[in-house]
Amino acid sequence: MLLLNPGPVSLSERVRRSLLQPDLCHREREFFDLQEEARARLLGTYRLDPAEWAAVLISASGTAAVESMVASLAPSAGRLLTLENGVYGERIAQICERYGIAHERVMGAWTRALDLEAVAARLDGAAPSARFTHVAVVHHETTTGRLNELQRLMELCGRRGVRLLVDGVSSFGAEAIDFADESLAAVAATANKCLHAVPGVSFVVARRSALRAAVSRAFYLDLGRLADLQDRRDTPFTPAVHAHYALVEALRELAEQGGQPARHRRYAALAEQVRAGLAALGIAAVVPPEQSSVVLRSYRLPAGLAYAALHDALKAEGFVIYAGQGELSRTLFRISTMGEVSSADIDRLLRCIAPVLR
Ligand SMILES: *Cc1c(COP(=O)(O)O)cnc(C)c1O
Question: Is any atom of ligand 1 closer than 6 Å to the C-beta of 192?
């Protein structure tokens, strides 16, 4: 079965085989070697200086990394502005609510770009007693495949001394992220999307200065404590040992293939192949290509074709595609090109879609 859903992804044989390494006690030297290699390679993906940045590993899915980042890096007296144009932006606001973190929301239509003018107005319009310290945003909003304008948002925040917390769960490893920008405090992501490893490990890449100011709202997800112990070749709890094997192998593979820029090129070619092939079949993209990620795209369901019929016909041919979320489930479907997916796979996918449309 070829997975074209936004993670978990189809694994390379090399990463799959890496799961079958010796049993490890997580309190032995061998595990800490693995933990250190994973942390170093995560920083290496964007050539980050370990003196300035730390990759903090969390044994849980991507949402845990986002939760850990928000709960730990929003200061006690902080105030967050959450930007929403999809499920994952909304989720950040839900996390703030659960932890009682002071926040306000800028909500936009799920199929539209974020209104950065409105964001600037909200930041500038806050009363002195209610100034925003942080903006939280989803880089690639997987709900629609839209790549939010991180660079413009960084400039906007930088000018106002506001820090950015980024959900980069479905962009880290493939899309460019300007870590040099001073406004960027942290990016949360996971092993099983653009990095091509298995579910079970997620992580936050955070500025060490932000970690030093971290607060302990959460227990298991206390980012400052996790960073502290991992820096000392330690761990507070039992990590997903085998998922660490896979993450390290996937990061070695990524580096050998040319790193993030090469992965971006590979995804871009596949995404364009899907877009052009579907366009030839009369199926339109929901978000224009220049506003989309290279990771995943959403497409309009042709009139009269239910998602289930398309899904089931493709599954019978060995492909798993993905439905829209919420209201969008009746109008669109999504195709991700993360993981061990080739151009030949996409050719075959397109050949299998054609007869379903008739
Ligand atoms: C996948 C994803 C998440 C996290 O999902 P999990 O199911 O917890 O791994 C968070 N944000 C974005 C943008 C995602 O694509």
Answer: no
